[in-house]
Every structure is written in C-alpha cells, then in structure tokens.
Amino acid sequence: MFDMGRVSAIKRARLQAVLVFCLLSVVACTPRYAAKHGQPHPSATIQSIYVATTRSLDDTGPAFGAARAKKLNYFRADISVPPTHEVGQIEWAKNAPDARTDFLLTDTLRFGNAGAMARSVQRATPGNETMVFVPGYNNTLSEAMYRLAQIRTDFDQGNPAVLFSWPSAGDPRGYVYDRDSVLFARDDLEHVLQSLTAAPGEKVFLLAHSVGSHLTMEVLRQAALRGDRRLLNRIGGVVLMSPDIDPDLFRRQAEAIGKLPQPFLIFTSQQDRALGLSALLSGRKPRLGVVDSPEAVEGLGVRVVDFSEVSDGKGLNHIVPVTSPAAVQLLKGLISQSERQGRWMNDFIVLHKQP
C-alpha cells in the first residue's frame, strides 16, 4: 500500500522546488552592473572604502570575481557619490559614466597584508572605531563597495569603513555555494578583525546583512571557543540586518559566545520576501530576520528593531534599513536618541512609518 500522505508531501516538495527554481531564474535575469572608473565631479562626495576580500582575481582582467582565493587580498577603493544622490539609492552608470549622476570608482590602492591596510585605516581617518561591513547572499564586489559608500553617505558616517567581501557567487541560483563560502571565509574575517584591533584602543563595529550575519556569528563563536575575549571586548557593537540564520542556530551561537558585544541589534521585517524564499530553500523554517516577538531572542542580550511597516518600494524588502528613505530617517532618529540617552530604549522596537 502507498502512503498517500507521504506521496502528497513529496508532490508538495517537488512543487516548491519548481517554484523556487522559477523565482531564482527570473531574478537571475535581472541586469547587474559593475563599478566603472571615472573622474569625480567637484561637488561629489568621495568615500574611501577599505576592502579585504577572499575573492580571487578574475581571469578576464584586474577585477575580483566569485572564485575563492587562497589568501586574502587588500585594497582601498575611492568611490565618488554624485551630487544628485538620493537617499537609499545606488545610482549605477548604465552607459557612459557621468560623475554628476552616477557612482564612480575614482582610485584604488593595493596593500600587501592586513597590517598595512590597518595602518592606512588608522592614519587616514580620525577615531578609533572602524565599521566593518559583511554583505549578504547574491552579492558582487561592486555592489558591496557601492552599498557601503551609500550607507556612509546617507548616515553621515565619519568613522573608517572596511568591507569584508567574502566570495559570494553573485548569482541568485548560488545559494548553496554562498552558504559554503561563508564557512570558507570564517578564519579570514577573524584575521581581519584581529588586525584592525591590534593597536591599543582600536575597536570595530560590525554591520552584517543576510547570510553575512551567519558569517559574523560564526566568527564571534569561534573566537569565544578559542577563549579570545580580547577580540570580543574590542567589538563596539553588532548590527545584523535581515539575518538569514535559523533562530535555533542563532541561540546556540549566542550561548557559545557568552556575553555578546553591546549594543547588539537585529533588524527584522515580516515583509522580507527574500527570507521567505530562504525559508523554502531551508525547509520552511522561518529565519531570524522575520521574528515578530522578543521571545525568539529572550535572555540573549539582544535588541530587535522591526521594520515591517516600512518598504523599500522594490518588492523584496531585504535591506530596508538602508534602502528605504523613510527607514533611514527613522533609524537616524533612533540612533540620535540612543546617543543622547546613552542606551537603546527597549528590547523590541517597532518602527512606524511617518504619515
């Protein structure tokens, strides 16, 4: 006798697989743009982005692709943000680059090792806390560099900024490859953090997105298991945006780390369609980035900021805190308030869009 319940479950699983494949195929057809070189406009804002990457140089030219490198590569990229820039946007040069209207790559400088890059970071920018951005799934190096330049511009961020660009496939069909690449890059991210905090008093602030949040948590976990409280004490705060992590796994990671760096913030949205797709790929388990109550992270020393009422207007809502002008305004107000009061207000905050 056939188990009809099992047959139905198999059919549902196959249907879900077909739907996921179709969705990924549609997304894969969306045009992708690369950074283009050019001269800045006199009114442009220049953002110096330091990059540590485990991507290999592309065979077709002097650019970093999706392949995994045997060793880290380091460089500085100067990004020109146009005077016409709108909050939350990356103005890509779709044809001939125009510094008046487009993001441009104006200059680059290679470094031989992490120490050389760290010394340049500390000389170039005042302050002793460096923001380290760990991007998410389906990301290219160009997209990550421009995104960090956009974030620095929109949030008036003056501290030095380092992009840790792990080798994402840069293809929506490369989800499994990206999950493996996250594990591949753990030791390298830890090495970069060690280098940036080697000098007395130096700290880092970690900003991670999507699958990059999983990478960040794994690095904190392995530092804790190694007994490296020095590094953990040099982390001045952590923000996980739309974290693509199983909530049960996150709890295990957090418990292994022990006392989490503070502040430790998780930005969530129940409207995040990309995490809905991730849940399908991972067996329909909701991801950490869509939690809707404080119970999911209770007792971990974590604060949740819910962006569900705010949209980026593009459909996926996967990086709303930095792509929605309304979210940027709300978040800047929340940051300003927390700085004035010296603490974050509540463990669970729902941001309401202004009428």
TrEMBL record:
PROSITE patterns: PROKAR_LIPOPROTEIN (PS51257). SUPFAM superfamilies: alpha/beta-Hydrolases. InterPro entries: AB_hydrolase_fold, DUF900_hydrolase, UCP033909. Pfam families: DUF900. GO terms for molecular function: hydrolase activity. Residues 1-34 form the signal peptide. Keywords: Hydrolase, Signal. It comes from the Bacteria. This is Alpha/beta hydrolase family protein. It comes from Roseovarius aestuarii.
